[in-house]
Amino acid sequence: MSNTKVQGLLGASREFLIPLAALIVLMAIWEVSVRAFAIPEYLLPAPSRIFQDTTAMGPALGEHTLATLRTVLFGFLLSIAVSFPLAVLISSSRLAADAIYPLLVLTQSVPKVAIAPILVVVLGPNELPRVIVTFLVAFFPLVISMTTGLLAVPPELVELARSCRATKLQELLRVRLPYSIPFVFSGLKSAIALSVVGAVVGEFVAAEKGLGYLITSATAFFKVPVAFGAMLILALLGIVLFQLIVVAERVFFPWAAAEQRR
């Protein structure tokens, strides 16, 4: 592995460890405050009680976490698969941009909580509605970031490529796409965080497994520590997935990561 990739990996590890340390400090302050002020458990349980009640669920907790993770990843990958061709189409044609942008705004103007029950009725109470809700939440910032990156290429670079008789595909792959990498990863970071939100929204509406389902069922039976535990696992899941994208950017595109830190 080259020195640049090693430095990128070390930098990404540092960005992962610092938030983790901050989270541990926050948990310690939380524990001390709850015990010092004798806050009732039904209002704010201590982290130790949350850990105790949540881990008591055993393998069921892992099943709920994996169910949510699967929905998050499916929705996130679907958002990438749809966003890239849309961004290419929008950036290559003004007519396509005028036709597609209003539709993109329309998908974001309708609350996803309102769409989810309709999807359940149309598609059935399975995982597909949850994946689609996750996709609808995540893909918009990704499309915007990709489109912005593809259009941000300096005109002189485009003219140089065309003067060398580059085809549209070569211009896309060798000029526009490499230049847009920082924008793409910025969109990916937003999309993965929003994917966690979308998955939980879908699970609130219709699910038999998942951390969102666990939160609703736990609060229905006044198991507040379990609900807090599921919420903390969701937060950790979002942090880990976000940092994985940071690591991928630092390792495979260190120059793009350096550009974003300027």
TrEMBL record:
Keywords: Cell membrane, Membrane, Transmembrane, Transmembrane helix, Transport
Pfam families named among the record's database cross-references: BPD_transp_1
Stored InterPro entries: MetI-like, MetI-like_sf
Subcellular location: Cell membrane
Bilayer topology: Multi-pass membrane protein
Residue stretches making up the ABC transmembrane type-1 domain: 65-245
Family classification: Belongs to the binding-protein-dependent transport system permease family.
Protein name, entry field: ABC transporter permease
Organism: Bosea rubneri
